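Hi team,

Below is the intake form for Leucine-rich repeat-containing N-terminal plant-type domain-containing protein from Dichanthelium oligosanthes. Please confirm the fields before the structure is written into the shared record.

FORM ID: S-0412
PROTEIN: Leucine-rich repeat-containing N-terminal plant-type domain-containing protein
ORGANISM: Dichanthelium oligosanthes
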Amino acid sequence: MAASLFRFTLPLLQLLLLSILAASARNEEDARALTALRRALDPAGRVLDSWNPSGDPCGGSFVGVTCDPAGRVTAVSLQGRGLSGSLPPAVAGLRRLQGLYLHYNGIKGTIPREIGKLSELTDLYLDVNHLTGPVPVEIAAMANLQGGVFCFYASFLGFLGEKFKKQQLLDWLFWGSILHFVCWVTGVLA
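The structure came back. Fields below:
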């Protein structure tokens, strides 16, 4: 009887151990992506100093990071934090990301096309920054994207390519904020 119980519980214990190891590996992927995000967005290390590369992003010490019960990063909320770096392609490593809120900062550079790989992203807020260049067409293909702002303050030099669905952009731009309307009136959606 003890032998049959052992044969039954051993595979369950192995499965449990494999699940724990798999969850740990996924966390490492998120941690690497957040480390790259920190280096790019806050090169001086003065704003995101709580983002310790050896820390657990879902342990509560990473300011602005929200996780799901499985320990995957689902949101990065850093609006109005005084960030002045750039948005790195490594953000695509946050595979379960649903919300990226980086508005009201001083972020420079271009929007990485890799954001288009974030298949679960529903909210993308990059307004009131100093972004330049075109909005990647990969963003237009994002099926789950519901809330997004493509008004990048006065320094926006890019264009919205022909592949963008105008109605989808109108839905994003008129999502309820006067700022969105101002963006439209000033020619972002010409």
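SUMMARY LINE: Residues 2-41 form the longest helix (40 residues).

Thanks, M.
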